[in-house]
């Protein structure tokens, strides 16, 4: 399907610049904060033809060797590495809009998180695929914005906090492959064994590398409606009873081959007064992606790298100590910390 006839639609320059500035600002904030922002609404009737273009183009997917194998291409180099491809299900549905084809390639769901891989192919070369000195941008993010995402068993939209878009890489100047992670465990309803996932992408932003450069933003419609099977056997939930003291209690640990969630509650002070570090049974520090607080700020939930084959983990929780800088009133520096908990926790199911 060709969209070249829409290239001749005249849009006033001032509107076009306002759109670009608004989108760029919103997406830069999204990238900086790793939070979803709502892009500004645009009241311009002349844009309707451009923004509502979208059609399935199955022929496009057959040209891309990575379709159905995206996890294999990126799983060892993403922030939380894992053997995603071992458990993935091929989907291979393609939507095409405004010169960009997006193929939803594979899906994995362990009942804790939902992982979706995409192949994004542009008719023209992406503007930013290297650092400008010839060095390829490896594992760079292509930023996306969804109009919505839905699952069939809940009215709540899924949280994709963590990365600002697709975590992946450019395989050439026309093609990006990446994965989007959704925190399905944040939904209150019980996750069924099977459900339907719907999403509609509305913005694809090739993020500018250097300050002063303009993002290459494409608006369009890339919609998908796919079945998902949940492999609940991949998730090990350990509820803890005796890992506590006068300061803190470690309530539970939830582990999959891809990530781990530790829930704590604090008896003195609030969650942001503490710092947790976790090690596997070989002493390797496990990376963290984020922590979120409970409503009363007395507890938190931390997302970490999966300990994989470890028989146990070591959890160290500290309470940092600060002093105010005399030269900069209102500014504090850390001068040490008190260890309030140091426990080795077995991970047997």
From TrEMBL:
Domain of life: Bacteria
Region (Disordered): 286-307
Keyword match Lipoprotein: no
A Pfam family annotated for this UniProt entry: DUF4179
Transmembrane segments: 42-61
Stretches assigned to the DUF4179 domain: 41-121
Coiled coil location: none
Keywords recorded for this protein, A-Z: Membrane, Transmembrane, Transmembrane helix
The protein's name: Tat (Twin-arginine translocation) pathway signal sequence domain protein
Annotated organism of origin: Romboutsia hominis
Lineage of origin: Bacteria, Bacillati, Bacillota, Clostridia, Peptostreptococcales
């Amino acid at each position: 399907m060709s969209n070249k006839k829409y290239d001749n639609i005249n849009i006033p320059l001032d509107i076009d610049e306002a759109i670009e500035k608004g989108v760029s600002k919103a997406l830069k904030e999204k990238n900086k904060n790793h939070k979803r922002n709502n892009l500004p609404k645009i009241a311009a009737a002349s844009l309707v033809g451009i923004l509502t273009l979208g059609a399935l183009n199955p022929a496009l997917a057959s040209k891309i060797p990575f379709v159905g194998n995206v996890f294999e291409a990126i799983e060892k180099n993403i922030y939380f590495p894992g053997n995603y491809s071992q458990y993935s299900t091929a989907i291979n549905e393609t939507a095409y809009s405004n010169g960009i084809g997006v193929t939803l390639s594979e899906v994995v769901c362990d009942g804790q998180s939902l992982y979706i891989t995409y192949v994004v192919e542009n008719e023209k070369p992406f503007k930013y695929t290297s650092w400008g000195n010839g060095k390829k941008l490896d594992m760079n993010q292509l930023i996306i914005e969804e109009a919505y995402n839905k699952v069939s068993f809940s009215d709540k939209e899924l949280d994709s906090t963590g990365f600002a878009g697709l975590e992946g890489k450019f395989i050439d100047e026309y093609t990006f492959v990446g994965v989007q992670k959704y925190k399905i465990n944040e939904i209150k309803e019980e996750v069924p064994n099977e459900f339907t996932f719907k999403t509609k992408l509305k913005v694809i932003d090739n993020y500018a590398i250097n300050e002063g450069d303009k993002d290459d933003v494409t608006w369009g419609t890339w919609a998908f409606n796919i079945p998902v099977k949940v492999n609940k056997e991949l998730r090990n939930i350990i509820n803890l009873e005796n890992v506590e003291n006068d300061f803190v209690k470690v309530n539970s640990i939830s582990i999959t081959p891809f990530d781990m969630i530790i829930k704590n509650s604090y008896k003195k002070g609030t969650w942001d007064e503490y710092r947790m570090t976790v090690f596997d049974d070989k002493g390797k520090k496990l990376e963290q992606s984020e922590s979120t607080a409970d409503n009363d700020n007395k507890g938190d939930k931390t997302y970490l790298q999966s300990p994989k084959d470890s028989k146990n983990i070591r959890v160290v929780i500290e309470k940092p100590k600060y002093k105010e800088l005399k030269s900069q009133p209102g500014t504090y520096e850390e001068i040490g910390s008190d260890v309030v908990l140091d426990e080795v926790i077995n991970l047997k199911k």
